[in-house]
């Protein structure tokens, strides 16, 4: 899916006003907004009150809003940003010596930057608050402001860049929590409410419907399964809540499509179920320990269906099974088409990645697949298999390069102009022979080599019958 829009990660980092940081493609919302706030534990009464008013012909959501707004908080972040001299001449050593300037002139100065976002209290007893990773990224100090005016210093429990979820902890005193709903039950057409602080003007309530579920392919986060809504969400809504009509948290608002830096009715929220799964791991481990099963996969398309006589029009086609992996031990083979994982439909490789990636290491997941027209099932124990990172011939460190295996070599099949891989000097047709003196014969070994922590990787590449080293940092 190609989006012809501006992607603004709205982590406003300015002194007194919200600045919108533009990149490319869809807007990731970060300047402070507590979208749809969550209600208290006693939701049925509030839902009944709203239903009674609607039944009586009084069109209002006031009872719902009054109950949920105390559960949404503002998140203020202070961080230090390096500033360099405006003129590039100050970076030139000869220039500094000629004008007898001290070396200190070239060192970056630091200034304090402030950014704002939102969060949702999901555990009043323990003081846990959900927000976005990009809201608190690089924070030196985090302050949570409640609706009643209290300002509390927050502790960062953990953050996950892959889902853009972070967990904070504040003093658990007289808090109102938002009840987590079952986001899997969200249907297109369901009414939802968003409460937040757009553009820093103050708490604002908007309403709309669920426009789509399971939205992927936006290139926002590593694990995408967004709830799409037309409830008005603007810059400043990051980390806020998307709430159902019974006052339950359906998602954490994360991004909007905004070609003109404003709302056009297309917003995205991380589903509550995914956010909770991430939160549980962050609280327990401080990080998300993602599971993998050891397969290289690609999307099923009409050409593959015809060429391979596949008996499934949608799913994740296994092109390679890593030797010794949980997938191989469970009997999966190249050519199998995975149609379900963990009881949920797999329509594309992103679906499988989401389901497996959120299963904890050592736990099992049921995989349903089709082999030569026959439906089959396997229960696989999830493990730490690096080869999963090369799904569809891509490796994270070589962003922009599509790889393939030729004999006992990994070859760059295609490379995107202006990509990271291209900036390193890699070219289409290059054979990757080794990484840091470790011989590479397949995609799994390449992914494993990059898994080893290092500040620099030396790739031995063969190009036009010559060999050269290419450095990646």
Short account of what is shown:
16% of the residues lie in helices and 35% in strands. It is α+β, with helices and mostly antiparallel strands.
Number of individual domains: 3
Principal-axes shape call: globular
Low-confidence runs: 1-43
Separation, N- and C-terminal Cα atoms: 30 Å
CATH class of the largest domain: Mainly Beta
CATH architecture of the largest domain: Beta Barrel
List the helices and strands and how they pair.
Elements: E1 8-9, E2 21-22, E3 27-28, H1 43-55, H2 62-68, E4 72-83, H3 93-98, E5 109-123, E6 128-132, H4 133-136, E7 141-145, E8 151-153, E9 155-160, E10 165-169, E11 191-196, E12 204-215, E13 226-229, E14 241-244, E15 249-256, E16 267-271, H5 272-285, E17 295-299, H6 302-308, E18 316-321, H7 326-329, E19 337-341, E20 344-345, H8 349-357, E21 364-371, E22 374-381, E23 401-406, E24 409-415, H9 420-423, E25 431-435, E26 438-439, H10 443-451, E27 457-463, E28 466-472
Antiparallel strand pairs: 1-2, 3-15, 4-5, 4-7, 5-6, 6-10, 7-8, 9-10, 11-12, 11-14, 12-13, 13-16, 14-15, 15-16, 17-18, 18-19, 19-20, 19-21, 21-22, 23-24, 24-25, 25-26, 25-27, 27-28
Helix pairs in contact: 1-2
Entry keywords:
473 residues; alpha+beta; Thrombin, subunit H; Pdz3 Domain; 3 domains; 6-stranded antiparallel beta barrel; 16% helix; globular; disordered N terminus
Descriptive notes:
This protein is an alpha+beta fold. Helices cover 16% and strands 35% of the residues. The chain folds into three domains: 1-285, Thrombin, subunit H; 295-388, PDZ domain (Pdz3 Domain, Roll), CATH 2.30.42; 396-472, PDZ domain (Pdz3 Domain, Roll). Strands 8-7-4-5-6-10-9 form a seven-stranded antiparallel beta sheet. Strands 11-12-13-16-15-14 form a six-stranded antiparallel barrel. Strands 17, 18, 19, 20, 21 and 22 form a six-stranded antiparallel beta sheet that branches.
């Amino acid at each position: 899916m190609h989006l012809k829009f501006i992607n603004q990660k709205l982590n406003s980092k300015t002194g007194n006003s919200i600045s919108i940081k533009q990149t490319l493609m869809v807007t990731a919302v970060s300047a402070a907004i507590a979208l749809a706030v969550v209600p208290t534990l006693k939701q049925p009464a509030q839902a009944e009150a709203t239903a009674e008013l609607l039944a009586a012909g009084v069109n209002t959501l006031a009872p719902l809003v009054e109950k949920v707004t105390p559960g949404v908080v503002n998140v203020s972040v202070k961080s230090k940003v390096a500033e360099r001299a405006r003129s590039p001449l100050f970076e030139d050593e000869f220039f500094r010596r000629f004008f007898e300037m001290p070396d200190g002139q070239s060192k970056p100065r630091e200034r304090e930057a402030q950014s704002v976002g939102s969060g949702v209290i999901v555990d009043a007893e323990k003081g846990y608050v959900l927000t976005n990773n990009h809201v608190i990224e690089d924070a030196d100090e985090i302050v949570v402001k409640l609706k009643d005016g209290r300002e509390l210093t927050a502790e960062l429990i953990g953050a996950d860049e892959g889902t853009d979820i972070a967990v904070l902890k504040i003093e658990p005193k007289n808090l109102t929590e938002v009840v987590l709903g079952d986001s899997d039950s969200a249907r297109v057409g369901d009414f939802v409410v968003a409460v937040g602080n757009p553009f820093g003007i103050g708490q604002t309530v908007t309403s709309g419907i669920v426009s789509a579920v399971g939205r992927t392919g936006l290139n926002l986060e590593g694990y995408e399964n967004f709830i799409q809504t037309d409830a008005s969400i603007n810059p400043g809504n990051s980390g806020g809540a998307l709430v159902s009509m019974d006052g339950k948290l359906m998602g954490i608002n994360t991004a909007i499509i905004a070609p003109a830096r404003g709302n056009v009715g297309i917003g995205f929220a991380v589903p509550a179920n995914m956010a909770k799964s991430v939160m549980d791991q962050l609280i327990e481990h401080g990080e998300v320990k993602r599971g993998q099963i050891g397969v290289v996969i690609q999307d099923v398309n009409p050409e593959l269906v015809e060429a391979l006589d596949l008996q499934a029009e949608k799913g994740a086609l296994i092109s390679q099974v890593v030797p010794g992996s949980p997938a191989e031990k469970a009997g999966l083979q190249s050519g199998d088409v995975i149609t379900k994982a963990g009881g949920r439909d797999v329509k594309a490789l992103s679906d499988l990645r989401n389901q497996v990636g959120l299963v904890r290491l050592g736990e099992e997941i049921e995989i349903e697949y089709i082999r030569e027209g026959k439906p089959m099932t396997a229960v696989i124990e999830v493990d730490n298999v690096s080869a999963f990172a090369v799904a569809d011939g891509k490796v994270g460190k070589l962003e922009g390069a599509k790889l393939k295996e030729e004999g006992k070599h990994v070859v760059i099949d295609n490379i995107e102009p202006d990509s990271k891989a291209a900036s390193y000097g890699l070219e289409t047709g290059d054979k990757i022979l080794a990484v840091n003196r470790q011989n590479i014969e397949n995609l799994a070994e390449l992914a494993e080599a990059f898994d080893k922590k290092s500040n620099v990787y030396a790739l031995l590449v063969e190009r036009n019958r010559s060999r050269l080293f290419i450095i990646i940092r």
